[in-house]
Amino acid sequence: MRVTNNTLTNNMLRHLNAGLGRLDRYQQQLASGKRVLKPSDDPAAVINVLELRTSLTENNQLLKNVDTASSWLQSIDTVLASTTSVLHRAKELSVYAANDTLSGDDRAAIQRELEQLFDNLLQLSNSTHSGKYVFAGQKSTTVPYQRASTDPADPGYYRIAYHGGSSIQNSSELKVEIGANSVIDINIIRTSINTDGEAEDQLFMPIFGALSELINDLDQGMTDKLGAEHLEALEAALDGVLATRAEVGAKLNRIELAEERLKDLEVNFNKLLSGTQDIDVAETIMMLKSEENAYRIALSVGARIIQPTLVDFLR
What we know:
By secondary structure, the protein is mainly α. The chain has two domains: 1-33 and 280-315; 52-270, CATH 1.20.1330.10. The chain is 62% helix and 8% strand. It has helices spanning 5-32, 43-97, 104-125, 205-220, 228-277, 281-305; strands spanning 128-129, 132-133, 145-147, 160-162, 175-179, 182-185, 191-193, 199-201. The strands form four sheets. A two-stranded antiparallel ribbon has the order 1-2. Strands 3-4 form a two-stranded antiparallel ribbon. Helix 1 runs antiparallel to helix 6, helix 2 (43-97) packs antiparallel against helix 5 and helix 3 (104-125) runs antiparallel to helix 4 (205-220). The chain starts with a helix and ends in a 10-residue tail after the last helix.
């Protein structure tokens, strides 16, 4: 086989270009910190990288869901804590109002305070979180608790109607996905149908009813009804609030556990992704230096292969 100068030159250029290509690849890996820069570098690794990135995206969304659900339930728990304080004060006033030694002015002062407690409770029951009513179910843009009348002189002023989502209409659940095939309902309102055929919740409506009757009896001067009867109604309403707070606490515990699990998964996914696509910096630098030395040697050898010819002296 005849080896000409053109053959030597072409082989030299081909090897030099191949060496430059390897140098460029190592330089890009060091600059980006990634071992896999394009699918052809490692097709199997690219598939793993895409799957891990998808898993990370899904996991991050679940963490956002968990944060939203936790914030929502904490807001509810704060409202229920204030509601508990309202009920405790209402019970104190109910017992105090039953005292036969009180004058009409004393009972009028108690009535005014109870009216303020009623207004405060109405404000609490219509609490919002991020612009949504927390006790309205899926009807989160509708004011859930509304007075039957806006006239303080009207008996309907202290009668409340519920306009939020109803479990009967399947519009009360607020489900949030907090894990793979794991969903939690962050709504704590349970509704039933009253004797008038209207939907009413089992949390605030009993409180409104007990306070309304207490205010009405004080206004009408029915002192014989004060005390045990109203105290029993308020006690039952308080038990309902405490049971609801226990439910909220249980859901918050479940969400906290889900958050810990998702954060562990995030660490694992990032570790696997790093092991799949990231470079070993020390090893890559060593390979870069090795290729750089090989390229310089190739240049030196090439200079010896292409010797001067007679043409170089005919300029």
